[in-house]
Amino acid sequence: MADILEYYRRGGERTRLDAGAGLLEALRTRDILARYLPAPPASVLDVGGATGAYAGDLAAAGHPVHVVDLVPEHVERAATLPGVTAEVGDARALAQPDASVEAVLLLGPLYHLLSRADRLAAWREAARVLRPGGVVLAATISRFASLHDGFVRGYYADPRFAPIVDRALATGVHRNTEPGRGWFTDAYFHRPEEPADEAREAGLTAERVLAVEGSLWQLGDRLTDLLADPDGIRLVLDQLRRVEAEPSLLGSSSHLITVAYRPGGR
């Protein structure tokens, strides 16, 4: 966990969502949130919400939003956003009371909980603080992300990268054995069927798993020009909505979002 905290404290994600595949991820995540969150002013607990990349938009739309994040520097920045409150905390042991919020976002914690027991703890905490009928939207990284990313970014030129991919494909565990290379920090990469299984084991009803970027993220920096044009954004969002739940394409997406509900109340 120390390596993960250091990665984020160094600003490893600070500009990732600004261009290319990162911008596609952000646009698609906002699109999914807009369609699956309850109408404002539903209370939203943004667990692992970092500096508030999504919390600020949700607060502006009328949602009361509270961010919980492990990194104090993230919490300080998120708390400056209008309508957003924030605290340091752990997804596996939330301070919020039972049945106290209408929606929980897990748009990061499941990336870095390497053991199934820890991931289930985060899912169970999300279920605990949800009101009956409330929704969890949980992001995970695809099992095959580093295999593709190695080609997109030219990482295979370094012979130390292929063994990292081998381990991730075999076990789901991505270990950055060369932190100085700037590769992604330690993480767990889910197979498409795993997040829904985890949600169900935590007592939630997993309704669907959605591909965030689909296969388009593999265009890399070529996406920047496409997404600089409002017509290009509309085209991408419209087309990706058509196939976001297609089972045969889920594994090609870099990220997945699982939509799950606490039973009762809907």
Automatic annotation (TrEMBL):
Domain of life, per lineage: Bacteria
UniProt cross-references to Pfam families, sorted A to Z: Methyltransf_25
Domain named Methyltransferase: residues: 44-134
Transmembrane annotation, as ranges: none
Stored InterPro entries: Methyltransf_25, SAM-dependent_MTases_sf
Protein name as annotated: Methyltransferase domain-containing protein
Organism this protein belongs to: Actinocatenispora comari
Lineage: Bacteria, Bacillati, Actinomycetota, Actinomycetes, Micromonosporales
